Structure formats: structure tokens, C-alpha cells
Amino acid sequence: MNHKKSIWQVVDSISEEIKQQFPEIHPVLLQLLWNRNLRTQEEIDLYLSPDWTRDIHAPTLFSQMNEAVQRIFYAFEHGETITIHGDYDADGVCGTALLLICLRDLCRALSFDEKLVTSYIPHREREGYGLSVETVEHLNTHENTKLIITVDCGISNKQAIDHAKIFGIETIICDHHSVPEEIPDQTIIIHPHIDSETYPNKFLCGTGVAFKLACSLYEDARKRGSKISEGFERWLLDLVAIATVTDVMPLLGENRLLEMYGLIVLNKTQRIGLKKLIDISGGTFGTLDTNSIGFQIGPRLNAAGRINHATEALDLLLAENETQATEFAMRLQETNKERQRQSSQMFDEAKVFLSTQPLTNLLIAVSDSWSPGLVGLVAGKLVNEHKRPVYVIGKSDDLYVGSGRTFGNFDVTSALQHVSEHLEKFGGHPQACGFSIRGEENLKRVVDSLQTFALEKIKQEDLIPHLDIEKELKLEEIDWSLFDSIERCRPFGQGNPEPIFCARELSLVSFSAVGNEGKHLKFSVRSPFGRILPAIAFGFGDHAQNFSIGQSIDLAFHVKVNEWNGNRELQLNVIDIFL
Length: 579
Description:
It is built from 19 helices and 18 strands. It has helices spanning about 15-20, 25-35, 40-50, 50-55, 65-75, 90-110, 135-145, 160-165, 205-225, 235-245, 255-265, 270-280, 290-305, 310-320, 320-355, 375-385, 410-415, 440-455, 480-485, and strands at about 5-10, 80-85, 115-120, 145-150, 170-175, 190, 365, 390-395, 400-405, 425-430, 430-440, 465-470, 470, 500-515, 520-525, 530-535, 550-565, 565-579. The strands form four sheets. Strands 3-2-4-5-6 form a five-stranded parallel beta sheet, with helices on both faces. A five-stranded mixed beta sheet has the order 7-8-9-11-10. Helix 5 (about 65-75) crosses helix 9, helix 6 (about 90-110) runs antiparallel to helix 10 (about 235-245) and helix 10 packs across helix 11. The chain is globular.
């Protein structure tokens, strides 16, 4: 009986010639490096032994960085109000906090007025994504803003930025989202993807772009006589580490360096609000990693913008005393619980909705009762369940607000270009997007046009789940030397996944269903040469009824360590099973 959930694609093994070129590297580690397209000694050194001084890119490689720095100092010197306009997700909030901290540092160091630095994050449901004309008018009337710095947004907001010019408000864009056909002109743009940009790292998150601006600002402040120490800006890397993971940026090249150093800072963070949030979410300082960000920190920061207002998360990151920090962390914890409850209910309703629709290559679920703040989460869950791209659309007042998540190679943001005439606003990445639609007629046109577009672009073979296997192993190869080599590949994440291996023709030695209601499967396997290793398969408990001792089995797995009663042993954490 075949219980395999996906097609296993095993990468071709590297040649003996390649192994001889790098004899000092464990052969399995060398295979992992090769699978990540790391072929030269320089690329391998950057990956295995990153060095800040050697490997970080100078922020001034951004073509308009110097202009941005000079414009900000001009604002300080002339008493102009600067408003940092962020986004309501974890990337936007972390980037907003980072620039607020930086600009306030500069004010204190160079005797500028801190009150000149303000921030604005739109409400997800009432205002939607990005800088709007209405926000510009508010900042002009109520804040007397003369310089807007966008973080994690702005590149798609030409209309609002043009409107700001009417009031004499200039804009600096710090963004990384997909670049529309028409971008703001006569505007300072720090964005790795615009055609004229030569900055080497094209995969910075919004906070990463903001960090580059902060680095240049600190350096200029030092030239102006401030006593800000060299390297002081690295204490902002905890925020960069959080945003890089939550925005699913590839952890290779410079991003890997930022994440590695960022995790070091995160484990020592002095942000009292962040410390409280980590404590309340069950994190342990000294062991915080990308999983801690992805499953503990990130969801709680994101919950604020999804349920209430993202300023709750910003307040936490900027908290200055224990009482504030505890209050903000507890509030975010409760908000996250409410987010889980609501998104679970919406997910169940979306499944019912889709069960009444034809099963097409692209799934679109719509309901007037769904919260726009949660449609992205529901879309992600539906992608996992149906293995095809999904758009989920809710409603806020007279606007339909949607979010898309991809499967395979379908670009959910580019697809929106084909229906842009019916959209109020849209933006995002190839993997995820957000958009808004005004009126039922436009909604129907968008849904119909997207389905027609997907019919042409998505082939049936694109919808078959694939599991990328880094290397086929014999159980005899799985030892502590191999495990230590795999650990050198951390931090794991987008573009640098935790390696999945496979082993074939194993014999089942023992097995039992474990956990609540026997949901998981604990077993052990023997190789043809007699090596026995324990294994755990989470969510595979129902397989126990099809198992029998001595049965032949193929496994896809991570190599992990099981620690109990002071003992450590290697075990296989199973991803897929083939009987």
C-alpha cells in the first residue's frame, strides 16, 4: 500500500571530482552546499563562516542612499516633522520601530528635537495597505509633516506621494515589494528591485532596507561629531532577524549574515517589551532560532494588526519600563488567542464555501462576514490543504479586501496586474499579496478574470505536491559527524530549508501510536546492514493500522536529536512514508 503524500525529487549526487575539490568538507555537507548553488570557495566561506566586516554590503551601494541621509538631516536642521509610515505586519512594525529608535538616537546624539519624529501605521481594515491620499492629508493637517519615510510600503503609492507634493511634503521610500509599472517620480527610493538599482542583495525585507538606511544615518552622525560608537547599529539586528523570517525572505547571502547576527542579538535583546513577549510565549533565551520567530514571536506581533491595530505591537517594541512591557505583552498574547479563534472559524467556513464550488486550479473563497485582517492566514491554510494557489476575500464596510498565497510557481501578485483596472489597491510578492475591490460588480470581474488567467497559466502537473530530497542516505551514514555538519547550515528558513533526506528498504522493528488520541507514530527501523534508529512521525498515527513488524518501508526525514533523562540520541523526524 502506498501512503506517500508527495512525489519525492532526490537531487543528483555530486561527483567524486567535486568531493576531491573540497576534501575538508563532510561529503553530505558538500552536497547540501551544492544543492544551494554554492560552488566556489568564496560562496562556501560566506555560507559556513560569514564575517561581518568582509561580507556585509555597504548601505551606500543603494544608489539614492546618500540623498536620503542628507534629506533626513536637512529635516532635523530645519525643524521639520518627519513621519515614519509603516505597514501593519511584523516586517512593517519592526521597520517602523527600527527607524524610530535610530532617529531618536540621532536627535539625542546631535541635540535635535525628538518631538520632530513621529510615526503612522494604517488600520488594516479601515485604511488598507500602503500610504493613502487620506493619510497624507491627515499628516499635513494634524502633524505638520514635511518628510514621510515609508517602511515596507510606498512603491505602489504614486497617487498619494504625488498628492503629498501639493502640501510641500517629500517622501523617502524604503520598500521591497513588487514594483508596479508606474512608480513615484522625483522621489528618493531605496528599493532593491527597481530597474536602476545596483544594490547586490535583491532579497532584503522592508526592515532590512530600513536597517541599511539606519546604518548610513549612524555613520553620517559619527562624521558630524556624535559619540555613537562604531557598530552600535548592530543592536538593531534583532528586529531585522524577526522581519526577515516573518516576511519569508531567503536566508542566503547577505540575508543569512543578517539573520545569524540578528539571532545572536535577539538572544541578548535589551528590548524589555520583546523580552516579556518571548517569556510569555514560552521562548527560552539562548536557544531562540528561526522557529521561535516563526511560531512564537512573529504570530503575536502580526496578531495586533490582524485583530486590533498594529500600534499595539509597535508599543511593545518601544516599551521603556517593566510595567508597560508586561501590559503590552499580555495584551498581545490575548490578541493572538483571539486571532487563533477567529481564523479557525473562518477556515472552517472557507472549507464549506469551497466544497460548494468546482475544484479549479485556482481557489477563490469569498464572504462578506470574514475579517480582512485574517484572510491571509486562511489562504495559507487552504494552500496547505488543497495544494493549489488561493485567494481569500473578506469585506470591510464597502470594500472587499483579499489576500493571496501561492502554490508551485504561480505568481499571485503578477496575476493581479491582469485585473488591476478592477482593483482599488494591490501589492505584494510572488508568494503572497493583498488587494482591495470596490463593489460587487468589480468583485465578480476579478474572480472570473483570475480564474480564466489561472486556467491558462496553471497546469495540472503544477499541482502535484513535490518533496525535495537533498540526498539519499544509508542509516550507517547517520552519525554525530553528519548531525554536526547539518547544524552548520543553520539558521534554516526560506531558500535554506532544513535538509530532508530519504532512506529506502528499511525494516520495521517496532511501532506504536502515541500522543493524544494516538495522533503520532513512534517506531524504529533497521537498515539492510543491521543499523537500527528510532523515528517519530507527527500526524501519522493512523498509519499504525497498516504497519507490521518486518515490513519494508522508505522514509523521508530530518535528522534530529532526542534528549531525555540527560541522554541524547539521534532520531529520524519523519516527513513522509512509502510502504
